[in-house]
Structures are given as structure tokens and as C-alpha cells.
Design brief:
Length: 258
Amino acid sequence: MKSERPSPEKNAERVVGRAFGVKDRRMRTAILAEYLRLLPVAELLEVVRIIMERAERKVPRYQEAYFSLIDSEFFLSLIGPERVSEIVLQARETGCLEVLRLFSPGDPERERQVPGDLEVPAGLEYLTLGEKKSLAKGKRTLLLEKLLFDSDPSVIRNILQNPRLTELEVIRIASRRPIPGAVLRVIFENHRWIKCYRVKRTLILNPHTPVEVSRNLLGYMLQPDLEEVSRDLSLNLQVREEAAFLLGKKKHKEGGEE
């Protein structure tokens, strides 16, 4: 007698349970990818949809799993290009738009480009990269405050780990224009600061944020902010369309509950 296959809900609970509590984010991503790539595509789509849905409802275990999945360049490399193509094709055919955005890679080369009119803050032009990275981890000084405006992702990564940093200062970094997309991605990848709603919102409203990052954060936005994003013509069309789509879902859900 053939044993019954686990339901998508049980599969989702199983994969999230395996990854939950693993401190290293990339290790969590590897655990999730290893499990998911062995599932048939239809089951994979359903499991990922459940993870995203429960993360949106702020279930901690699922939020942790979701933030691991959206390390997309690494996650997609573990899944493999042929498998990703199959997933994207079936997600489009079945209308799984929320899941599709996880498997639609961004443009890493564009992120590395530095806008031409960026200026080096006064006092930093003679410092080496190593010196700036060291200062970024140190005590609060005038130079540390100037480093908030640095354009090197490795410097900003160190600043974000500095215990003296405040949420308002993170928002200052995230709202800079122009700014390399790679710097904004570093904020997105910081587990401490990306939990803050205002940081998420600031990233989405910055037109220099990689499209993939903005789209993955939209599910956390409240209705007024989705409305703002959908109308902001400075933002990428895909981001505005995704915001409008999610806004429509929220309004439909509210209408159905009345």
C-alpha cells in the first residue's frame, strides 16, 4: 500500500522547522533550498506560497524562513538554472505571482554601478577602504557620521553592525539619492534593521533600490503605503504594478469580510 504524500502545509512546516533556529542566514538558505529543490514543481510552489502567506501574517518561524529565501542570488544558484526555469514557467501558467517574484532574478551588474554624481564626503577622500571599514565599527565620531554617506557596500555593512547606530540613521542611509543599489541591498540583508517597518518602507520608496528587493518587501506594506508606491512615478514600473496588485488583494479581502 502506497503511503500518502505529505500535504503542502506539512511540507512547509517540515522545511521551516529544519531551518528555524539556524543562526547563520546563508546556512538557513542552503537548508531551505536543499529541501525545496527535491519537491515536484507544483508542490514547491505551494510550499513557498504558504511560507510567504504565513510570513505576511507575522508568524516568526515563517518570517525567518522568508527572509532566508529572499537572499535570491544565492538561493537561485542553489536551486539551479534549469530548475528555476521550470518553476518560473509553471508559476506564470498557474498565476502564482507572489511566488514568481522570488524566482525572478534582478540585475547584479546594475547594482554595482555607482551613480555618476555621487560625491565623497569631505574628510574621507584620503582614507583607505580598510581604514573606513575600521572606523565604521568604532566609537561615534564626526568621521563615523560622515561614513553614513559612503558608497562602498562593505563600509555600510560594518556601520549597520555598529551597536551605536540608530534607526533614524539607517533611514538616512536608505533614503539617500543617488546611491548604489548594492548599498541598499546591504540594508535589506541586515537581519536587525530590515525588521523595522520604516526601514522597509524607505527602501521601497527609493528608486535606486533593486527592483527585486522592493518587490519582496511590498507584502509587508500597509494599505496607505501601497497606494503611495503604486502612484509614485519615480519608481520602477514592476514595483508600482506589484503594489497595485497587492493593494487590490487587500481591498478585495476587506470587502469579502464585510
